[in-house]
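[AMINO ACID CHAIN]
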Amino acid sequence: MHKTFFAAILVNLTFFALLSTGALAQTNDSVYTKLDLDNECSIIQADDFGATLACPGYRGYPVMVAEGDLRMFVSYGLDSLNERAAEQTLSAFNTIGETLEWRLANRATGWTPIATILRFFTEDGMGDKQQYLIVTKVKLGETCQVARINASKYKNANQIARDVADTMAEGFNCANEPIVWAE
């Protein structure tokens, strides 16, 4: 609980500092795609325990969605099954929302995805339901979850998720850094 509390404070202080210095200049933007698992995704593997689907994302960017043990896993890119994100999910039983927000950075080569934001709906089996916004870094060989924001508790969860995506995702070290929780 202390780690979560301090992480939330750190995230909020970071955003206020960046806003006051102008570091969050409008160089990033959002686009939205739908995750229509039933109609637009192809099953690439299935067994008695779950399935893995390939879905189209922003400009055809591959999105992998897997379900196993009543939990969802989402990863991105041409090697999405081998990315760390393919193994990351919430511990509670969960499902995902249908709207995927892509955070794009304006680069010399054009608008490039740097992160995604996806809503997860959880159920702990005891009736407690929550919603989390999961911020995932999108980079070949370094795709992983960066932050989990409890959208049931923060009225500005969408903006917090965008700020995290814009300020932390690109420099986030998937191999060494822990996922930031705003619980």
About this structure: The CA atoms of residues 123 and 129 lie 5 Å apart.
